[in-house]
């Protein structure tokens, strides 16, 4: 949960102002939070106190989510769900264009991911089930001044099953440090579509590439072992993310993985490439290693442009794999 | 290093080495077609990205693992590094180019050297147990020849840059002096790429150049092209 309000940060950062530093040096070198912004002198003592914060991985910061989908005579059903703060599941939605598919939109009652958060997500799709999991809105990774936040996601799909894991974008606020690790395990004949879109700041307020570190790893394994692995590691202070060939003139970056080891990857890759070159983002599709399927990369100035381009590829891929279009994005 | 090792390093670093360098541009052809690379400065900046984002965090990590495994006669570790490098190289054209050059270098080394490990590695590649990436073959070759691992990393960077400079001379009006200047300017970046790869395990390969991947995807479908990648 967001327990470290921006005002508290501003107050602590205030110690570097010359006047504050001079006062601190004159009085007590150990009192490191002398504040000059207090609304009234009688509040100065309070302002010097750091607000206590829940410890790393404490209740409320150790969110766990478990979802399990199974096939029934009446289509796919969510047969197990367990969610602790900040995850919330308020049931399933039945409007997927695929008749047997089940949909879950993850909700969060918090303002985003804060320092010290450790999230653990497990989603299992059993044999022949079809599930779509997304988030209700963007995941905001809040500014940090201590520790980091991490999310560990494990997805598994049983024989003949299909999972679409297409969350809304991750927005990296200034000074955030975020590690996300996603593992996909596919059984024989299983398929999955994974999307990951990263927005490097609150663009509307002119914030971009001010986060400290972002490392996102995606790893897919099939019955015969590792299929592919992709990593996005950005530390804007150490290496310019807008260098030629990296993000270039673009800001928002996203990848869609169509993991379908039994499909004709070359043909699907060509079809998806044609689709995304007609879309608004600068994008391309290529066949994944080990015959795993297709990767689509898209770059643009706005999250919506990357999302709509990846959605067009997702729609194509879903028609190819499931004979049904991609969901429209309706969240209710 | 012994004289033999030094001379082997010179031979492996030479653009005269017949491994098909003239067929690969690693997306450079598409960057030129897109007018993203029009002069020596653009080219140098792009080559810097390749070294920092692709060669250092991926190829050299695999090369180091293969180099160490060759000195310990550990064929399984060589194959593991080889498979890992292919699994993190998402652009299909780059995997094909790396495996074609790797195949040529492995055949060449087997003609010149009578070595049991090279034979076993070739068998693993033939059995599809390892993809045979160029950086891994180079790691094995330099390890067996007694070339220091850091020199082997720099050799790999030098070969990569001279290969792309050769491609650039056919794609752009790039003079010989400009090409040499870029090679000279990129020395500190090559050293940093070698540093970056040190201490990484094969589980920690993190190449990241999405715009290169997007342009490579365009290049796969380009109608008229000089280069295989």
Automatic annotation (TrEMBL), chain A:
<feature type="compositionally biased region" description="Basic and acidic residues">
    <location>
        <begin position="1"/>
        <end position="24"/>
    </location>
</feature>
<keyword id="KW-0996">Nickel insertion</keyword>
<keyword id="KW-0143">Chaperone</keyword>
<dbReference type="Pfam" id="PF01774">
    <property type="entry name" value="UreD"/>
</dbReference>
<dbReference type="GO" id="GO:0016151">
    <property type="term" value="F:nickel cation binding"/>
</dbReference>
<protein>
    <recommendedName>
        <fullName>Urease accessory protein UreD</fullName>
    </recommendedName>
</protein>
<feature type="region of interest" description="Disordered">
    <location>
        <begin position="1"/>
        <end position="59"/>
    </location>
</feature>
<comment type="subunit">
    <text>UreD, UreF and UreG form a complex that acts as a GTP-hydrolysis-dependent molecular chaperone, activating the urease apoprotein by helping to assemble the nickel containing metallocenter of UreC. The UreE protein probably delivers the nickel.</text>
</comment>
<feature type="compositionally biased region" description="Acidic residues">
    <location>
        <begin position="25"/>
        <end position="35"/>
    </location>
</feature>
<comment type="function">
    <text>Required for maturation of urease via the functional incorporation of the urease nickel metallocenter.</text>
</comment>
<dbReference type="GO" id="GO:0005737">
    <property type="term" value="C:cytoplasm"/>
</dbReference>
<dbReference type="InterPro" id="IPR002669">
    <property type="entry name" value="UreD"/>
</dbReference>
<keyword id="KW-0963">Cytoplasm</keyword>
<comment type="similarity">
    <text>Belongs to the UreD family.</text>
</comment>
UniProtKB/TrEMBL annotation, chain B:
<dbReference type="InterPro" id="IPR002639">
    <property type="entry name" value="UreF"/>
</dbReference>
<dbReference type="Pfam" id="PF01730">
    <property type="entry name" value="UreF"/>
</dbReference>
<protein>
    <submittedName>
        <fullName>Urease accessory protein UreF</fullName>
    </submittedName>
</protein>
<keyword id="KW-0143">Chaperone</keyword>
<keyword id="KW-0996">Nickel insertion</keyword>
<dbReference type="InterPro" id="IPR038277">
    <property type="entry name" value="UreF_sf"/>
</dbReference>
<dbReference type="GO" id="GO:0016151">
    <property type="term" value="F:nickel cation binding"/>
</dbReference>
